[in-house]
C-alpha cells in the first residue's frame, strides 16, 4: 500500500476518534478536507501510473526486442485497441500481455520512462513485418535500407579505382604510384504510401473480435506483400503507364518502375522459340550484369514455368540435395540461377511485352540482377480505423499503411540490370 493511502487511513481514524469524543467540529471539517485532498492525490497518482502518455519511439525500441510470441500478442492488442478505439491498457487482453512480459520487465529499470512501465503497443511489431517479408518472393530478392529522411539520397559507387604496377623504391625520388579518382553518384529514394483496407462489423466487442484477429492480420500481411510484388514486376511511374489497362493514379503499379519498365531494348530477347538457347540469350544480353549466377534470378509466371520444366537443363528443387540454399519462392534452377514463380507475371500481353487490349496471348520472362535494385523503407506498417465512414452499412474500416520506395542502383538508361524474354506464348 502506498504512503498516500496510509496517510488517508490515518486521517480517517483520527476523524472517527474526534467524532466519538465530540471534539471541535471546525477541526473535524479541516481534517475531512485534508483526507479528501489526500484521496484525490491518490487517485491521480493511480491514474498517472496506469495511463501515462505514450513515448512512441522508446516503446518501439522495447517492443522490437520482445520474443516473437509476445510480439504476436502485442499485435493483437494493438489491432483490437484500434478497432474498439480504446487504450490498450483498458482491455482484458492487456492483463495477459502484461503478465507474460513481467519476467522481461524485471530485467529493465522500471523506474525509467519507456523501460518496463510502458510496454504498450503503438504500432505493429517487427514480427508482423517479418511475416510480410516471409510472404514476399520477388521482393525478397533485393536488399532493404531504412530511410532516415524523405527524400533520402543514397551515395553509390561509380567507376572503380584502377590498380597500377608500383616500382620498387630505390631512392627518395622514386616515382609515385599513379592515382585514380573513384566515381561517385547518388540514388534518391522518395517514399510512396501504400495501403489496404479491411472491413469489420460495427458490433464489435473485445471478446468477439479475438477469434478473427488471425484472419485480419493474414489479410493485411498478404495484401501488403502482394502489392510490393506486383509493383516490383509491373510498376511504371511514368505519367502514362506502359499497360493500357492501368490508368488510375492510385493503382499500386504506378508506385515505381518495376522490372518490365527497367529492361532496356538491347536486353529484350524474342523467345517465341522457347528453348535453352533463347533463354541463355537473355543472360548474354545483360553483359557483365549477367555473369554471376548467384546475383541473378529468373522470374516466371505459371505458363513459362511449365515450359521450363520441359527443358532438361532445368533442375527442380528435389534434385538439388538437402544442403542447397533455396530462396523463398524458388522452385527450380537453370544454369545455377534460381527460378522464382510469381502469380503477378502477366500472361495477357502482346509480342512486345505490354498490355494493349488487342493481343493478349503472350507473356514474359524477366532475368534480374539482384544487387542492382534496392528497397527503401520510410515507415513501418501503421493501422488507422474509421468508425464513421461506413456508418450506413454498419461497418468499420481498418486501413494498414506503409511508406517505401524501390530504386535501381545503376543507370538503367544504358545498363541492362534486367533482361527480358518477350513474345512467349501461353
Automatic annotation (TrEMBL):
Residues 120-410 form the Phage capsid-like C-terminal domain. Transmembrane segments: none annotated. It is found in: Virion. It comes from the Bacteria. Pfam families: Phage_capsid (PF05065). This is Phage major capsid protein. It comes from Candidatus Abyssobacteria bacterium SURF_17. The lineage of its organism: Bacteria, Pseudomonadati, Candidatus Hydrogenedentota, Candidatus Abyssobacteria.
